[in-house]
Write a structure and sequence with these properties.
The structure is a single chain. The protein is of the alpha/beta class. It is 40% helix and 22% strand. The chain contains 8 helices and 11 strands. Strands 2-1-3-4-5 form a 5-stranded parallel beta sheet, with helices on both faces. The chain is elongated and about 55 Å long.
């Protein structure tokens, strides 16, 4: 999952990025609306965490611009405002959810996972494919009820494939879901390595990862 965090308080944005990173989310951080617009111009995100009070503009203005441009990326607003009117205004402008500061990081993670599930082909908390079961909340999987030993990025890659079983995902799309801009030293061909590792761990089952030449990768159950 690729997340854009738009928050000018460095301690808050850093804490969010570190925490989400532990759960397999690749995070980019912008401290102004202008910086966020630069990120949005070149990168597709699964979800945006957007503070309302930003140095250069109000976050709701950025939200309005996104929706006016046809950008339907799920947006979770962070706000220190307790007014019901303020929260209703943000939702009416196109926000998908909101969280009041201060907040518990666990709730933020749960809300982000819920927003991403809305956009996915499989929307349940546990994603299944034949004998394979994956839990996004724990970044854990079982194959025929036996736990799979997955690294954080292998688990993230597996979730991307499972959430989009009907749609082959390009190497670039998978790369964008695993790596943030700060991982620029990692090339897109690293995806081939992670695909090979997953295939090895799934080899004894009916679940496989197909390569669609010129299109991308798709996970399927041959059983």
């Amino acid at each position: 999952m690729r997340v854009l965090i738009v928050e000018d308080a460095a301690d808050v944005s850093e804490a969010i990025a570190i925490r989400l990173g532990k759960f397999g989310m690749a995070c980019d951080v912008a401290d102004t609306c202008e910086s966020a617009e630069d990120y949005l111009a070149v990168q597709r995100y699964d979800v945006v965490v957007l503070d309302i009070n930003l140095p250069d503009r109000n976050g709701t203005e950025l939200l309005q611009d996104m929706r006016a441009a046809g950008n339907r990326t799920p947006v979770l607003m962070l706000t220190a405002l307790f007014s019901v009117d303020d929260r209703v205004t943000a939702l009416d402008l196109g926000a998908d959810d909101y969280l009041i500061k201060p907040f518990d990081q666990r709730e933020l993670e749960a809300r982000l996972r819920a927003l991403v599930r809305r956009e996915a082909e499989q929307k349940s908390d546990v994603v299944t494919l034949g004998p394979l079961k994956f839990s996004p909340a724990g970044l854990s999987a079982t194959l025929e009820d036996v736990p799979l030993n997955l690294t954080r990025r292998e688990a993230t890659l597996l979730e991307l494939l499972l959430r989009n079983q009907k749609t082959p995902l390009s190497k670039k799309r998978l790369y964008d879901g695993l790596f943030a801009f700060e991982d620029a030293d990692v090339g897109v061909n690293a995806i081939e390595l992670y695909i090979a590792r997953l295939r090895k761990k799934l080899a004894a089952s009916s679940v496989s990862i197909e390569t669609r030449r010129g299109v991308g990768y798709r996970i399927c159950n041959d059983g």
